[in-house]
Amino acid sequence: MAESVSEVRAWVNQRRGEGRTIGLVPTMGFLHDGHLSLVKRAKAAGHAVVMSIFVNPLQFGPGEDYDRYPRDIARDRKLAERTGVDLLFTPSVEEMYPRALQVTLRVGDLANRLCGLSRPGHFDGVATVVAKLFHIVEPDEAFFGEKDYQQLRIIQTMVEDLNLPVKVIGCPTVREADGLAMSSRNRYLSPEERRRAAVLSRALFDAARRCREGTTRAAELVQSVTQQLSSAGLEVEYVSAVREEDLGQVDQIDQPCRLLAAVRVGETRLIDNVALEAGKGMGHVSAYVDR
Amino acid sequence: MAESVSEVRAWVNQRRGEGRTIGLVPTMGFLHDGHLSLVKRAKAAGHAVVMSIFVNPLQFGPGEDYDRYPRDIARDRKLAERTGVDLLFTPSVEEMYPRALQVTLRVGDLANRLCGLSRPGHFDGVATVVAKLFHIVEPDEAFFGEKDYQQLRIIQTMVEDLNLPVKVIGCPTVREADGLAMSSRNRYLSPEERRRAAVLSRALFDAARRCREGTTRAAELVQSVTQQLSSAGLEVEYVSAVREEDLGQVDQIDQPCRLLAAVRVGETRLIDNVALEAGKGMGHVSAYVDR
Question: Which of A68, A132, A210, B83 is the most exposed place for a label (fewest CB within 10 A)?
Answer without folding.
Answer: A68
